[in-house]
Amino acid sequence: MLxxxxxxxxxxxxxxxxxxxxxxxxxxxxxxxxxxxxxQHKFPTVSHYVALCDxxxxxxxxIANLTDYESLIDxxxxxxxxxxxxxxxxxxxxxxxxxxxHPKGVLYSxxxxxxxxxxxxxxxxxxxxxxxxxxxxxxMFHVNxxxxxxxxxxxxxxxxxxxxxxxxxxxLSDLINSEGVTMTAGVPVVWLMLLEHLKNNDIQVPTLDxxxxxxxxCPELLINEFDELFNVSVQHAWGMTEMSPLGTFNKLKPRxxxxxxxxxxxxxxxQGRIVFGVDMRIEDWQGQEVEWDGHQFGAVKVRGPWIxxxxxxxxxxxxxxxxxxxxxxxxxxxxxxxxxxxRSKDVIxxxxxxxxxxxxxxxxxxxxxxxxxxxxGVPHKKWGKDRY
Length: 388
Hints:
Elements: E1 2-3, H1 11-21, E2 25-28, H2 33-39, E3 48-51, E4 66-68, H3 69-74, E5 90-96, E6 104-109, H4 110-120, E7 133-136, H5 143-146, H6 148-155, E8 158-159, H7 169-179, E9 183-186, H8 188-200, E10 210-213, H9 220-230, E11 233-239, E12 246-249, H10 261-268, E13 272-274, E14 279-283, E15 298-303, E16 310-311, E17 315-316, E18 324-332, E19 337-343, E20 348-350, E21 353-355, H11 357-365
Parallel strand pairs: 1-5, 2-3, 3-4, 7-8, 7-9, 9-10, 10-11
Antiparallel strand pairs: 5-6, 11-12, 12-13, 13-19, 14-15, 15-18, 16-17, 18-19, 20-21
């Protein structure tokens, strides 16, 4: 079973999740050797450490039972006999980095992983095939690179891995052009850096067809400039670790492409339509399902074959209908496009009115002189301690 670990977490969090998962073998990039050397004595269940390099580049550190990857596989056969596995057996484990308490583990089965790969590869989602070359700018610890580590090989899609410089505009543009990348995926801040590098150095990316963004709302400026300057489509996707992760994908329906540019943009800024395999409902604060009219919003709840029923070693976290509460607040329009308005913990209440911090942030970053913005509610003396 594969457990991907986020090396950017605090050492105390890494110690917690390695021990909570009861990991036995740790594979690591040599750049993290000092971190492993420091923490190894706090991992009682780990028996072996493997540096992802050859013997000549094995880091000079004091790590018990350390070997290099190339030596590990050197005397092994090039053939592989696939084992017989039950589809509900565990295949991989990812931990969420919640804002409170310890990270929570989400355990995926072989069945859920295969179904998610099939659903995410569909034409109205990632649209993967042997004709595509994909460069995921999402770490493997982030839900196995948004599932692309599975869906790309499954469909014969070429994978380009950017390595540790995944936020370097020069490295990314060089890889796109040298490898013929057609699709890439990551958070908006990465694409802002790439956009700035391309513009400042008068570089084109002729093979690049589309950029998939997730993790946070995409600024309208980013969508417009990639389209107008580079003929690249920027498409929203939405999901979370507990969803394997894909839940929605934004691809315009043919009838919407006949609308004005302004009207089309209003849809492009949304998180998209539900992908096959995900069942979603939007509930108000009383637990009643709201109409999909694009105006009413509420808590986003989901269920499906690749959506977690609970957290590892913590039991189920679903309601009596089998729905998982994502913690997001959203509306869905009559065309089926979802718009995330906020996280439930971040919605601002002022004088009885609910205000979306995300909407305010999007308005701010729409200004040409603002690259990033964060809206935070603070208590107001007029509205009282529970008003903002």
